[in-house]
Amino acid sequence: MRVVLSVSGGSGASSDLRRWLTRDPQLRGRVGREAAAEPAAGTMGAMAELLPVLLAPGGLTAALAAAVVAWFQNRRGNQTVTITRPDGTQVTVTSERVRGLTAEGAGDLAQRVAEALQQSPPTTGPEPAPARDQQRNRG
User: Fold this and answer.
1) CA-based angle 106:79:75, to the nearest 5?
2) Backbone angles phi, psi at 54, to 5 degrees
3) DSSP state string for 70-122
4) Predicted TM-score (pTM) of this structure
5) Closest CA to 109 of 72, 75, 77
6) Are 2 and 54 in contact (CB under 8 A)?
7) Residue 128 burial (10 A CB sphere; 0-12, 13-18, 19+)
8) Which residues, including other chains, have CB under 8 Å from residue 32's CB and lie 6 or more apart?
9) Cβ–Cβ < 8 Å for 101, 71
10) What is the pLDDT of residues 96-132, one digit of tens each?
C-alpha cells in the first residue's frame, strides 16, 4: 500500500520527518520524496514536499505510526501530518500536547493511527436488498 504524508507547521518539517523515517530500519528504502502540486487559486498554499511511503502487509503500518508519533515528541511547536491512503482517506495527526506524552500514551496514539490507516474504506452505493423467500406455495 502506498500512503503519502504531508507536513505542515514549520519550515523544513517535511525534510526533517523524511530524515527521521529513513533512520527507522523497517522504513528505510520505503520513503520517497515528491514536490507538492501548486496550490489552487485562492488557497493558502501547499506543502513544499510530499513523502510517499510504501507499506507492505504486516507491521509496517504500525512502524510508520510509531515513527510519526516519536518524531512529534522530538519537535517543538505544532506540526500536523496528514497521511493519505490510496483510496483518498486521510488520517490527520497534530502535535499539540504530544511532546509530554508518557510512553504508554505515545504507544496508544501510535496504535490509534495505525488502526485508522488499516481500516477498510467505507462502502458506497445502495444497501443490498434483504433476501426474500422465493419458495412458492403450490396447491
Assistant:
1) 60
2) -95, 120
3) HHHHT--S--EEEEE-TTS-EEEEE-TTTTT--HHHHHHHHHHHHHHHHSPPP
4) 0.73
5) 72
6) yes
7) exposed
8) 51, 52, 53, 54
9) no
10) 767 778 889 889 999 999 998 888 765 555 554 444 4
pLDDT tens digits, 10-39: 778 888 999 999 999 999 899 998 877 665
Length reported for the chain: 139
Under 8 Å between Cβ of 33 and 73: no
Please name the helix (run of DSSP H) or strand (run of DSSP E) that holds residue 26, with its range, or none.
none
Structural contact between residues 34 and 47, judged by C-beta atoms closer than 8 angstroms: no
Which residue has 406455495 as its cell numbers? 137
Q: Which residues partner with 80 through β-bridges? A: 8, 94
